[in-house]
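Hi U.,

Before I forget, here's the chain from the pilot set. I'm dumping it here mostly so it's searchable later in email.
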Amino acid sequence: YLYRAIGNKSVPTDARIGKPRYLHTTAAGKAILASYPSDCVDKILEKVGLPVITGNTITDSDKLKEELEEIRERRYATNFQES
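Structure:
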């Protein structure tokens, strides 16, 4: 995280400036991955893998790629207890 802003009615999170996260475990990270071409996503997955953070973390590359396609179509990403 590079920047964090908190609104009056925001939902609490554990996001902290400087705290590294795996892209596949957060809504923001998946939105970033969805903006990349598939060959770039493949290179990231080869290098980093899909480490498990919670029981809901996506750990299958095909499932992640399906979700990235859905994100592209609906134009927003979600995090369902994946981090």
